[in-house]
Write a structure and sequence with these properties.
Chain lengths: 333, 421
């Protein structure tokens, strides 16, 4: 595709052909020739990680684990959410989609954790430096808009067919919103608050941990939510290169023209997606009975405040510091 | 040693800043250096703040006053010039030493309060101490003390969102007080509050200042606020200080038309005090004086009332001419037993605005006493109105209706004593 458009350009303006594709091929060959031990190590580690996580997810009987997930949803969000998600998860079990679903979940979780672990520090760096931010923007655009199939292939040349290229492409595809929303969240923190930190002699690291990150947390959590959702959508595409799970189910059904199976696999993806989305967005929005992830981090106890808030107006009139209200002369200078 | 000393301070934003400083130093105008791509915010500013005074920097938005304040604690680097806080030259300190200086020597109060919304009120107030590394129990105890100073101790466990604007700024004040620094920088601290609350906060700041004796640099765009709070005021315009002086000096001798324009809006009744308009008290007659002699003296001075001393330096009361005449005609040997009117006393520090009612209502002259209750002067009735009209001033004679016509009182006219709480 890229080749034809360049050829057209050459005919139109007599521009010399830029052999970008050749360069990339050469570069990739060079990488595989020289760094294959590195790729092998990454490959082994990732595979072991994802597979052991999948085994852990399958350790409990499906129904018990589904109930546990539903209870988690109830704690974080609402009872209604718990009931609805339990119904969805039970449907997945009865469709015999539980095993591939857990394989996909393991792939999504590992990819998302790595994407977040890389993305948040990069986002923090971008928030602190305009230069880094400017350099990063086109890179993130590239990662998000480059058609995923294009880097699915080189991933296979590095890591072979299977799970690992799936994880790698998923990380690349899912990371940008984590970076962007972290940067946005930190930049949105009131400048005066950061200034207050500096004015009282707080070192920058302390301001980051004590002021900027806690206040940016809802936005960062929205980013984490987006990372997970993108990871899920990519994990299905990764089925094309042999990653197991729901993606594999969908790919198989397409090749067999088995509409029923495809629908069951697709519906399982939807159920998993909705569950993960509602669960993670509840963390970010300080909803549910957990009443705010931030208070978890800031160690501060929340105090009953409804009553206090109600009387706040009247208390403003209280004159403190022994003001002598009987004196006819205001004790000003 | 001055608390803060600024010398030849420049802050230029934009490009070619050093060149801009040099040209401004050579007398170039702001418009000239703008052509270089430089935006001067503070131009060649020098001043000294003495320990324990409230130094107000007053200017309209864009005059560079907030930029100036941020150079005093190093939030902004000076393009040229020096800032000394205590003995330390801020411009020579590295980042770590600068942080230490901020932790130990100065604190700041912000226009929009800048409270941390995720922390409780007490943890907000304890912030400076926490940064300094104080353990949790001690710093919370100190923060509660500071909250008690501003009357908010019962709100210690609330979150800032639950407080009204005035209360939030009191927490901001408590946070600065808890740091126990000598120097407090206040950046338009009361500008975001509505007028009544602002007034209350000003009173409170003055009371706290009387108790604690901090050095305060206070930024405002409100000249009335500047006059009310400031021991001295620096007026800024377009990055330069156009005048520094006490409120009275500025009212009396505005440096230029720009300053004079501002003064039109100043409420003189809230700047000048009884100490400014009083005249020396006529000698009080002792209780043992013969009524006939007193009457003669009163006629000689053409006064309708006379102060009667109690013999201990205090006042027994005020006798009217009629009462003295009656006593003289009845042949009384002394003033004892004379119907005396209680004296109306105000302090030297009482504002003219608060003097209007007693001065207008009573026939007897308003007497002025110092902090120890000793008589230092009287306020002639016409003097209050004359002062409000702009006729006061250091050393200028005040038209007097009663008493001896010499002006310089027992207390120096122009000093403004702090009220002891």
């Amino acid at each position: 595709m890229a080749e034809t458009s360049l050829l057209v350009a050459a005919e139109d303006g007599d521009l010399p052909r830029v052999p970008l594709g050749d360069w990339i091929d050469t570069g990739l060959d060079w990488l595989t020739d020289n760094f294959s031990p590195v790729f092998d190590a990454i490959s082994t580690g990732t595979e072991a990680g994802v597979e052991s996580l999948r085994d852990a997810l399958l350790f409990l009987p499906p129904i018990v684990f589904a109930v546990l997930l539903a209870v988690l949803g109830g704690v974080v969000r609402s009872v209604r959410f718990a009931v609805v998600s339990l119904l969805g998860l039970l449907l997945m079990i009865s469709m015999r989609m539980w095993d591939p679903a857990m394989a996909t979940l393991a792939l999504v979780l590992v990819s998302a954790v790595i994407a977040v672990a890389i993305g948040i520090p990069i986002g923090i760096a971008a928030a602190k430096s305009d230069r880094i931010s400017a350099v990063l923007r086109p890179v993130l655009d590239f990662m998000q808009t480059m058609p995923a199939f294009v880097y699915l292939v080189p991933a296979v040349t590095f890591f072979g067919i299977g799970l690992v290229p799936g994880v790698v492409t998923t990380i690349i595809f899912a990371m940008p919103p984590g970076v962007r929303l972290t940067e946005l969240g930190i930049r949105q923190v009131d400048k005066e608050l950061v200034e207050a930190g500096h004015a009282f002699g707080s070192p920058p690291g302390r301001i980051l941990r004590g002021v900027q990150l806690p206040l940016a947390l809802p936005t960062i959590m929205a980013g984490v939510n987006q990372v997970i959702m993108l990871a899920l959508s990519m994990a299905v595409i990764a089925g094309l290169i042999g990653a197991a799970g729901l993606g594999g189910v969908v790919v198989t059904s397409i090749s067999r023209l088995d509409v029923g199976l495809g629908f069951e696999g697709g519906l399982s993806v939807v159920i998993l997606a909705i569950y993960l989305d509602r669960l993670t967005s509840a963390f970010g929005q300080r909803r549910g009975r957990l009443s705010g992830f931030p208070s978890f981090l800031s160690r501060g106890g929340t105090v009953g405040k409804a009553g206090l808030a109600a009387s706040s107006r009247s208390a403003d009139a209280v004159m403190p510091v022994g003001t002598d209200q009987n004196s006819p002369n205001r004790p000003a200078r | 040693m001055p608390a803060v000393h600024a010398e030849g301070l420049f802050k230029i934003f934009g490009r070619r800043t050093d060149e801009a400083v040099r040209r401004l130093g050579d007398g170039a105008s702001v418009a000239d250096v703008r052509e270089l791509g430089a935006t001067p915010a503070v131009i060649d500013v020098s001043f000294t703040v003495e320990p324990g005074e409230i130094f107000v920097v007053m200017g309209l938005s864009g005059s560079g006053k907030s930029t100036l304040l941020r150079m005093l604690n190093g939030l902004l680097d000076a393009t040229a010039g020096r800032v000394r806080v205590g003995g330390d030259d801020l411009t020579t300190l590295d980042a770590k030493a600068l942080r230490r200086l901020r932790q130990e020597r100065m604190s700041m109060v912000f226009q929009h309060f800048a409270l941390f919304p995720h922390r409780t009120v007490v943890d907000n107030a304890a912030y400076a101490l926490e940064v300094r590394g104080m353990d949790r129990r001690t710093r919370r105890a100190k923060a509660r003390e500071a909250l008690a100073l501003v009357g908010l101790e019962q709100w210690a466990d609330a979150k800032p969102d639950e407080l009204s604007g005035g209360m939030k700024q009191r927490v901001g004040l408590a946070r600065a007080l808890a740091a126990e620094t000598d120097l407090m920088l206040m950046d338009e601290a009361f500008s975001a509050l509505d007028p009544l609350i602002r007034r209350e906060m000003q009173d409170q700041l003055l009371e706290l200042q009387a108790q604690l004796g901090k050095t305060i640099v206070f930024i405002t765009h409100d000249l009335n606020e500047a006059m009310r709070l400031g021991d001295r005021i620096a007026i800024m315009r377009d990055g330069r200080i156009v005048q520094i002086g006490t409120p009275e000096q500025i009212l009396d001798e505005p440096a230029d038309d720009y300053v004079a324009q501002f003064l039109a809006d100043v409420d003189r009744g809230r700047v000048f005090t009884a100490g400014h308009v009083m005249v020396a008290a006529p000698a009080a007659v002792p209780l043992g004086a013969a009524p006939a002699d007193v009457l003669t003296a009163m006629r000689a001075h053409r006064t309708g009332t006379v102060l009667v001393g109690d013999g201990n330096g205090g006042l027994a009361g005020v006798a009217t001419e009629e009462a003295v005449r009656t006593a003289a005609e009845s042949g009384a040997p002394s003033l004892v037993g004379l119907p005396l009117q209680p004296p109306v006393s105000v302090r030297t520090t009482t504002l003219l605005a608060d003097l209007l009612t007693p001065a207008a209502q009573d026939e007897v002259p308003v007497t002025v006493v110092d902090a120890d209750g000793r008589l230092v002067g009287v306020v002639p009735r016409g003097a209050v109105l004359a002062a409000l009209g702009g006729a006061t001033g250091n050393g200028r004679p005040v038209p007097s209706g009663t008493g001896s016509p010499h002006t310089a009182g027992a207390t120096a006219v122009g000093t403004r004593e702090a009220v002891r709480g």
